[in-house]
Structures are given as structure tokens and as C-alpha cells.
Design brief:
The chain is mainly α. It is built from twelve helices and no strands. Helix 8 packs antiparallel against helix 9 and helix 11 packs antiparallel against helix 12.
């Protein structure tokens, strides 16, 4: 499959994430939603460890662990497709162990890897396969999806997905990031009312967060007809 064409970052954002809550901004040019995928490493790893109950699940989680190591060192191609030492790759794990929690998580990792590699359509394909009710992992995946849609210039879909991510998270850590992204996309679309609503939600519900520091500037900008 050919690599998807990169678009200019439509959001122009440098997100500073709260280190006290175990988030790390590793690359100032990377989209905030993709940065938030660090949550997968933190919460997803703990989550699937707690899910293990069957031999097949145990085997799948053991195979997945090697992929997580490649992922953590940003070796995304190898994490996706495997190595010459017996590790099969996230894509293979997701297929071979379909139905297990580890395979579900492999879909998430595969989607994030593709996003990091700029292959946004492939990223969406795998992220859409992931399902979870976790209040951190699920919105992080939605946020990454939203950013992938934005990179493909599907801006209405991107904004709607980011708003859903913010609502699902309902947290000081993630929600204001996604709300501000959604607001900037709505501004790009000329939808000032929707942008202002997103910004005002940050001010009202997440007033003590980094994103709220200069939120009045965003509100004023969106109020200009």
C-alpha cells in the first residue's frame, strides 16, 4: 500500500501536557492527539495485564510485549510488521489472536504506528477496530482518530470526533486539548459559533488547565464576525 500524502498541519499546535499526570510532550511538531497516544502505553499496558484469564490471552499478551518495546523506542515499522527474530508485528497479532484483549490493544498500537508514519487512512482503519470503555484509553484513541481525519482534510469529521473525545474523557488532562483542537478546526471551517462554544467549555469546565491560560484570546478571535 502506498504511503498517504502528508498535508500541512491544519492545527498548528504545540501542546504542553501535564507531567504530573504522566503525560509527555515528546515532539513539538506532533499533533496533540497523537501525543496523547502515550496514554495507550500507560493505561493500555496495565489494562491488558489485568484482562488475562485464558491461555490464548496469555500467549497473545506475551507476544504483544515485544511490540510494545519497539513502540516505546519509536521503531514503528518493526512494531507494525515484525522483526527477523520471531516477533510477528502488531498487524499479525491482531489477526492471529482476534477476539482477545491483547489483539484489541494491538489494533490500537497499529493505528498509532500508522499515524506516526503519516499513513492516516491505514491508521483510521485500525483505530476503528479498537474498542474500550476505559475513560483514558478510549478518548485517547478518539483524539488520535480526530487528528488523522484532520490530516486527511476531513475537517468536519475531525472536529466532531475531537468533541466526542473530549466528552468521553471528561478530564482535566485530555478534554481541553481536544476541545481547543476542535475549536481551531471550526475556525478554519468558518464555523465561529461552534468554535466559540468549544473555547467557552474550556473556560467554564477546565479553567485551571494549560489550554485555558489564554483561552480568552481564542474566544475573542471566534467572536469576530
Amino acid at each position: 500500500m502506498t504511503e498517504q500524502k502528508h498535508t500541512q498541519d491544519p492545527l498548528h499546535m504545540d501542546e504542553a501536557l501535564n507531567s504530573s499526570e504522566a503525560f509527555l510532550l515528546k515532539n513539538k511538531n506532533m499533533l496533540g492527539g497523537i501525543v496523547a497516544a502515550v496514554v495507550i502505553v500507560i493505561c493500555g499496558y496495565l489494562g491488558y495485564k489485568n484482562f488475562i484469564s485464558e491461555p490464548n490471552e496469555l500467549k497473545a499478551s506475551e507476544v504483544l510485549f515485544k511490540g510494545e518495546q519497539y513502540f516505546a523506542t519509536e521503531n514503528y515499522e518493526t512494531a507494525l510488521n515484525g522483526d527477523s527474530l520471531g516477533y510477528a508485528g502488531f498487524i499479525s497479532i491482531a489477526n492471529e489472536f482476534s477476539g482477545t484483549d491483547a489483539a484489541n490493544l494491538a489494533n490500537a498500537y497499529a493505528g498509532i504506528c500508522y499515524a506516526q508514519l503519516g499513513k492516516y487512512e491505514d491508521a483510521i482503519k485500525y483505530l476503528d477496530k479498537f474498542s474500550a470503555d476505559d475513560f483514558m484509553v478510549s478518548p485517547a484513541i478518539l483524539g488520535t482518530l480526530g487528528n488523522c481525519y484532520a490530516q486527511l482534510n476531513q475537517l468536519d469529521k475531525a472536529a466532531a470526533t475531537l468533541l466526542k473525545a473530549a466528552k468521553t474523557a471528561d478530564s482535566q488532562s485530555l478534554s481541553p486539548i481536544y476541545l481547543r483542537q476542535a475549536g481551531e478546526i471550526y475556525e478554519k471551517l468558518g464555523k465561529k459559533a461552534e468554535a466559540m462554544e468549544a473555547y467557552k467549555t474550556i473556560k467554564a469546565k477546565y479553567g485551571n488547565t494549560y489550554q485555558a491560560i489564554d483561552i480568552d484570546k481564542y474566544i475573542d478571535r471566534a467572536s469576530i464576525k
